[in-house]
Hints:
Blueprint: H1 6-22, H2 26-32, E1 38-43, H3 50-53, E2 61-66, H4 76-88, E3 93-99, H5 103-108, H6 117-130, H7 132-135, H8 141-161, H9 164-171, E4 177-184, E5 189-192
Parallel strand pairs: 1-2, 1-3, 3-4
Antiparallel strand pairs: 4-5
The structure holds cobalt (II) ion.
Amino acid sequence: xxxxxxxxxxxxxxxxxxxxxxxxxxxxxxxxxxxxxxxxxxxxxxxxxxxxxxxxxxxxxxxxxxxxxxxxxxxxxxxxxxxxxxxxxxxxxxxxxxxxxxxxxxxxxxxxxxxxxxxxxxxxxxxxxxxxxxxxxxxxxxxxxxxxxxxxxxxxxxxxxxxxxxxxxxxxxxxxxxxxxxxxxxxxxxxxxxxxxxxxxxxxxxxxxxxxx
Length: 213
Ligand code: CO
């Protein structure tokens, strides 16, 4: 079985050699530190590879991915990534990036049972229910899924801003912008949903944390 993966190890060597040919010190520089300016929160979907989409090299993008790019306040993994990125790496931008045709989002719109993942996708089902009026006149299934993909990004963008991690950075006067983007698998293009948030004044009062520290 193991020999079948040899091709991946070989590809890795070719890749590392190509980078070292361009910049002989690339890896030795990176081994000393990382100072990415961006945190990417995206979907685990294999067709949405964070670094490649935005053409960034190792060291330039801090990445967290899960099914359907969900930011949950009880998810220790996502919150730890967020805390480390904001407080230690001091990223300037957080990009919450969804994608059209997301299988996780589509599954959350169905009444079928998928198992454990239903608990995770329940967060998206709640968004679907809250916005059910927006779906009333859309009959095309693809359009319905894509609308919920966008609404999901906006909700996860809000969830990111509602954390004490992001709010503490703003209170300290740090420049930090949280963006909502969506990616199209069909043409490889990103779209900014135009909903970026960069300060406490854009947060509903109910979600403001007065003394996050
Ligand atoms: Co997806």
